[in-house]
Amino acid sequence: MRWSDMDALRHINNVAFLRYLEDARVDWLYHRSPLERNTEEGVMVVHHDIDYRRQLNYRHQPIPVELWVSRIGGASFTVSAEIADTDEAGKRTVYARAKSVLATVDLNEGHPKRVSAELRHYLEQFAE
User: pTM score, two decimals?
Assistant: First the structure.
């Protein structure tokens, strides 16, 4: 969490939530998946849907973001996410739930393409 993520109302601004989701998604897709090694295939966000459940106040420790794949199509897939944490007593607090539809893109040509077999296999490991 960055100090600048907090707004005038002293809670984390809604735009920061999208950044947290993006940071988690980029780490998951570009540092752990076949896209890490692939210079010809990428993804672009085509839709976000986010429900803000509770106010999140600034704190020093990072906020966990859990990701999973909720749909795999021919040329796109949906990544679902939950921004939540659990306190010392075991109580879970959900701050936001989100879905992002990502389309696979040919980076050389700049147009959509089918999800590769290698990427599909990776995504299937995280399907709900």
Answer: 0.87
